[in-house]
């Protein structure tokens, strides 16, 4: 049985704390661009009729609902998150949506996905892989539960390549974002965000990590000057 590390438990506690204001702050701090990024990530999936999709780090179910809105009514989605507080708010959102009945929520970490081998046609994870402490294990688990020919699409913050834009971005990320976040929620959580992004591997290195975990045809697409990146990997 997988046990979270001290760091993992700390991250889970932090997200439990900020869950009530999570959606508001996402829209505010990203100027609403996060919605466009999620739509683009979902557009990279190829989900058959009667397909099954796993959305890891589902949070308040934004991606799960986007998948439901853009797939056949026969497609079923499992939203998984290791933070109970996020799932509580996600379920409220599902209850208010006519798409919510197609989505089932599960409380579990990425490193120990509670589903059999070859269960899903596609997997998504948006802004969650950097919070997975054992990333290599998480990627191997994702590959394990994918069906042959299935696809994983990972959306994550990254570091802009342009030196000039990177300076402006870092000023906002390191100074303004924690201040604004602290007005509405826990400041330390929005200090953690830039810290976790800055320590995340480069686009090339993370794509290589996916290949090392067993994904084939791994590639990535930078969005909005490299603020965010979509990583794509298939199962042979």
Describe the structure.
It is a single chain. A seven-stranded mixed sheet has the order 3-2-1-4-5-7-6, sandwiched between helices. It has a domain at 31-160 and 202-234: Vaccinia Virus protein VP39 (Rossmann fold, 3-Layer(aba) Sandwich). Strand 2, helix 5 (84-95) and strand 3 (103-107) form a beta-alpha-beta unit. The chain is built from nine helices and seven strands, in the order αααβαβαββαβαααββ. It is globular. Helices cover 46% and strands 21% of the residues. The two termini are 28 Å apart. The chain is α/β, with parallel strands linked by helices and 236 residues long. Helix 3 (33-43) crosses helix 4 and helix 7 packs antiparallel against helix 8 (187-198).
Task: Jot down its keywords.
236 residues, single chain, seven-stranded mixed sheet, alpha/beta, Rossmann fold
What is this structure, in a nutshell?
The protein has 236 residues and is an alpha/beta fold.
**Secondary-structure class:** alpha/beta
Distance between the amino and carboxyl termini: 28 Å
Principal-axes shape call: globular
Radius of gyration, whole Å: 17 Å
* CATH architecture name of the domain at 31-160 and 202-234: 3-Layer(aba) Sandwich
**Structure annotation, total helices:** 9
Indicate the percent of residues in helices: 40-55%
* Spatial ordering of strands, largest sheet: 3-2-1-4-5-7-6
Low-confidence stretches: none
- Amount of beta strand: 15-25%
Q: CATH H-level name of the domain at 31-160 and 202-234... which superfamily?
A: Vaccinia Virus protein VP39
Mean pLDDT: 90
CATH topology of the domain at 31-160 and 202-234: Rossmann fold
Summarize the biggest pleated sheet: 7 strands, mixed
Q: Class of the domain at 31-160 and 202-234, according to the CATH hierarchy?
A: Alpha Beta
**Count of β-strands:** 7
SSE series: HHHEHEHEEHEHHHEE
């Amino acid at each position: 049985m997988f046990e979270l590390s001290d760091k993992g438990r700390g991250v889970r506690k932090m997200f439990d704390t900020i869950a009530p204001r999570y959606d508001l702050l996402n829209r505010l701090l990203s100027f609403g661009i996060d919605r466009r990024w999620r739509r683009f990530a979902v557009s990279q999936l190829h989900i058959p009729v009667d397909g099954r999709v796993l959305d890891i780090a589902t949070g308040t179910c934004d991606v799960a609902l986007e998948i439901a809105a853009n797939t056949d009514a026969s497609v079923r989605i499992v939203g998984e998150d290791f933070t109970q507080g996020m799932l509580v708010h996600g379920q409220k959102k599902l209850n208010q949506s006519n798409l919510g009945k197609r989505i089932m929520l599960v409380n579990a970490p990425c490193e120990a996905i509670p589903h059999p081998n070859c269960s899903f046609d596609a997997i998504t994870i948006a802004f969650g892989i950097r919070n997975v402490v054992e990333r290599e294990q998480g990627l191997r688990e994702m590959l394990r539960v994918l069906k042959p020919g299935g696809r994983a699409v990972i959306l994550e913050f990254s570091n802009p390549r342009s030196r000039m834009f990177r300076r402006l971005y870092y000023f906002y990320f390191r100074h303004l974002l924690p201040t604004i976040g602290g007005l509405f929620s826990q400041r330390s959580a929005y200090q953690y965000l830039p810290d976790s992004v800055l320590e995340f591997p480069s686009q090339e290195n993370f794509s290589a990590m996916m290949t090392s975990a067993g994904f084939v045809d791994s590639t990535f697409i930078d969005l909005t000057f490299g603020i965010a990146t979509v990583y794509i990997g298939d199962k042979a």
